[in-house]
Fold this sequence. Notes:
The structure is a single chain. By secondary structure, the protein is an alpha/beta fold. It has a single domain (5-275), classed as 3-Layer(aba) Sandwich (UDP-N-acetylmuramoyl-L-alanine:D-glutamate ligase), CATH 3.40.1190. It has helices at residues 20-29, 61-70, 86-99, 124-136, 144-151, 161-174, 216-229, 234-252, 268-275; strands at residues 5-15, 33-44, 54-56, 77-80, 106-108, 113-114, 117-118, 139-140, 178-182, 190-197, 200-207. It is globular, with a radius of gyration of 17 Å. The chain binds 3-hydroxy-5-(hydroxymethyl)-2-methylisonicotinaldehyde. 3-hydroxy-5-(hydroxymethyl)-2-methylisonicotinaldehyde is lined by residues 11, 13, 18-19, 42, 45-47, 82, 111, 119, 215, 217-218.
Amino acid sequence: MSYHKILTIQDISCVGQCSLTVALPILSAAGQETCILPSAVLSTHTAGFSGYTVRDLTEDIPAIADHWEKEKIRFDAVYTGYLGSTEQVAFVRDIIRRLSAPGAPAIVDPAMADNGKLYPAFDRDYVEAMKGLSFSADIILPNITEACFLTGMVYREDYDESYIAGLLDRLSAAGAKTVVLTGVGYREGYTGVVVRENGQDRYYEHRRISRGCHGTGDVYAAAFVGALLNGKNAYDAAVIAADYTLLCIERTQGDASHWYGVKFEPQLPAYLRMLGL
Ligand code: PXL
């Protein structure tokens, strides 16, 4: 098994099974040294709870990065998710430039929107900053809503293959390298993911479980990165992440009190088997 030092930059939502509280256990389970940079600390995530507290850690970031540089710390991959502010996006780009080991991939989940809408904390300036980060990354994992914000394409709930191809073409034209476009479903009861790599598109379709779950994008992205660091190619990593996320949703279905996230922990052994660990 290959052992890498990865840096993941996202918020800590203390309760809510998303971002760092998902990425750290999944990447550690995948056998990777996982360094973290919390972008903000929230009492809960922002999707469905009200009155949450937020401490934005933007102003701590430059000194943390300077210390790591002084200590000659370098990362074999950098994976970013939900960030704390527009200003922070520039700091994150700077960290990727200064602290990545040669050849280290930058993997960006532009976690900022879903179901046609931006998350409450974000605005147009954040979208503009996220375009710069996404189009300089090696791999991005947008959902359809995020891809629309990144490209200016109109969001549609009803779409066909030509709409998705158009979305991918616009991402490529803007500079996106490998794209893992999530939540793409063409028929009732199914959803899937399109991977565009080296100009070629491959689609993986799987069952869609009707219950909409929070945090599945973060589980998906962390599982994808864990698979990638274990030597899988982008398509195979996308398939493993989809199969694992589906197991997590299945495990959570039927427990209405668990609306805020998915029970990803009991399925970690299944994920490791998919990785061949
Ligand atoms: O799952 C994405 C996410 C991460 N972090 C915070 C969020 C959300 C989605 O709403 O609110 C704080």
